[in-house]
Amino acid sequence: MNQPKPWSTWQIWAARIAFLAVFFYLWELAANTKFIDPILIGRPTGIVKFMWEEVFVTHSLLEDFYYSMGGTVMAFTFGSVAGILVGMLFVTSPTTDAIFSPILTALNAMPRIALAPLFIIWFGLGLGSKVAVGFSLTFFIVLTSTVAGGRGVNPDHVTLARTLGASESQIFRKFVLPSAVPVIFNGLRLGLVFSLLGVIGAEIIAAEHGLGQNLSVLAASFKTNGVFALIFLLALIGVGISWGMTALENRLLRWR
Amino acid sequence: MNIAVQAASAPADAEPMSGAPPGSVVLDKVSVVFGELVAVKEFSLRVKPGEFVSIVGPSGCGKTTLLNFMAGLLPDGVGRGTMLVNGKAPVTGSHDIAYMLARDALAPWRTALGNAELGTEIRGVPAEARRKRALDLLDKVGLKGFENHYPKALSQGMRQRVALARTFSLDAPILLMDEPFGALDAQTKLQLEDVLLSLWQREKRTVVFITHDLSEAVSMSDRVIVMSARPGRIIADVPIDLGRPRSVRALQKDHAYHELYSQVWTKLEEGLSQ
Question: Quick one: A12 exposed, middle or buried, by C-beta within 10 A (0-12, 13-18, 19+)?
């Protein structure tokens, strides 16, 4: 059997763009001919127009964007630092792990978005409650991956370290920690996405600013073009986060 | 890298044992018992300073257990009898020994140079001195130009060369090696055996070498100890007078070597059939 020749990169890009062009053209056509009510699906041209005005004319989308990103970055920073620290504590102290692990598992099983109303009572409508929801998601994800990474140390490394006379802290710094980094990194990647999820989710429930708040207002007033614009923006942010983390990983973990 | 200096700086509270000179390993009626299982029974052996001794035996005969005992890796209470390593009871992490495992145990996040420095780094050798030593040894094991390569970019043989450099970087009078070339293919193994011999011949440190490969034991050692199946005891102690310096690869065509090999093999067979 002759293997078909694989497509070159530019051919693949051309096909991809062609597909998207056809897709958006049909969408526009369906809305214009009222084949599907534009109230339900909006219009690609309308979405672009909305974006343009909100970003370059009124700047109101930018402000929401900064609020949401600020919340995400804060939730991610606090959540992952706390997750790594507690995870390392669990790795180094099996007793602590034995006591607290089931409690944390139970907490983690709770649908975190259900806590959002409580956090809003505690921390108000501002950033605090959004950061709290994002934190509650990120913390557990990073904690779990840190514990998994810390346990994954190669037994040969431990034997070697012991024959070399390494102290507990040397074993930790020179073997446990570096071998845990790739696994922790996977947790961080997921944690960042979940920080965004937590912040946007909490904004949808109740907020003064933010993309989530904007989204819920637009949806409530049937501004479908605006809703789609925000959804595309959020998707782009997600892709950006993923891309950034991969770039960072390739830089930091060159040895893999 | 002076063994005499090492011994002189040994702590004064270490018992001055007559008959246990610095760099020696002395075992007198050593037994190792794990619960019901007798792994080694009344094993006695004296390894002289600077001597290259191999211990061969079938798998499960307790040879690795003996080595772990010397390295202080056994849990408390399982070892009995007298064991003196460099004149002292074995301690985990003793600076008197350098230990090499069957698998290279390289840290994948460190370069070849970083790995060669790992042992000396943990033992607190100043940065400049340990770097110099690691670079020198990487050169000696034939890895000049590969200093900044990560282990993933090295072949198995090269990785074990890095492990050799890491082991020989240590300033320890006694080297304990647990089948270090067991995982290598035949050709690479011969090369690495010669690398090990060339490193050893420069400094003549004491080597206790565990292997199940009789040809490896005969070609490298001053003495070959043959162990029985469990519980391990000595069934032959054969001096190998093949002269030094030697090349393992050249020995492959040497008559005296094959003669000795078949002698030891006969003893091994006799011992195993008893």
Answer: exposed
